[in-house]
Give the backbone structure.
Amino acid sequence: MSDVRRRVGLAANEYVRSSYIGAADLARLETVADFSYRFFDRPGGLHSAVPHDAAAEAEMIEFATDLDVLIVCHGSPLISDAILASAERLTLLGDLDGDRFSYRIDIAAAARRGVRVVDTSHGSSYPTAEWALGLALVGLRNAGEHFRKMIAHEPPFTVPAEKRSGPGYEKAELSDKRVGMIGFGHLARRLTDFLGPFHVDIQAFDPYAPRVLSDPYGITFAPLETVLGCDVVFVLAPQTPATEGMIGAAELELLQPGSVLVNVGRGKVVDSNALIARLRRGDIVACLDVFDPEPVPLDSPIADLPNVFLSPHIAGVTEESRRRFFTLMVDECLRHFAGLEPLAQLTPENVRLNPAYNPSS
């Protein structure tokens, strides 16, 4: 590694600076680089591009001029071609929490100028995969309905035979089941590792995932209708115009009686009204960490259905995951300074998969 001191800057709001940046990781970075922070509080950056702001762009030009690495997150203005043109030393751009579609960075402009871009949004995939596994187990045992009865001081079973029949008893073990995954990104790949001891047959729907992943992860890519016919179906897809409402009434009809639907991706991927109608038939179980709209309205009928287990979009929200975004980014910086390839690179090909991406809008 070179002895030359680099300059690394973070552009984000105060919450990011105080909640994401761990002292130990900052100390690791400062062994090879000088670190600086600039407060910005621009809207956007998760599900839509950050709107252009001339004043914020001018301030960012001044901040980024002497940086070797620029890290952005919530609050940052769009890193435009004009900013990149002024930052002649810049060789790496990083988004701490951009949902892998880079609404804060003009990826095409960065590629033209030879600036690499990385995104460490997958830092939250670690706890989300754990929670997804937990929800699947809860759903297979119909634990949500049992819990509702117990806290209502009702007997869980009216007759002994109920304990040995129906949801929570029949097809209630995860081992050796067919598991479907809608989306096969970082989250799905981590979940696949967790599912290993259960010896499940994993079938995944993802038109964009490289097919070479099939062999090393031991999964099979399949059409959406095949995946929806599995015993447990995980919705792991991000929210884009192409995925909003992707799971509607027709798709929900393909869920098999006794199956469990787990959504830890995005609420808008599943049509909420169609899901409620399907659940009212009582032959499937849903475990949902996300819903549309969010938060779940207090009067929503989804909350009253006995075959539903809800959590309030907490799957990826842990103290560890908040710090992990920056941990992974420091790893990328150190790797970059050592002349190595990044692990979580974003390219024009990546973001072209998202129809909503338009840095000039």
Notes: The two ends are 40 Å apart (CA to CA). The domain at 6-120+319-351 is CATH 3.40.50.720 (Rossmann fold).
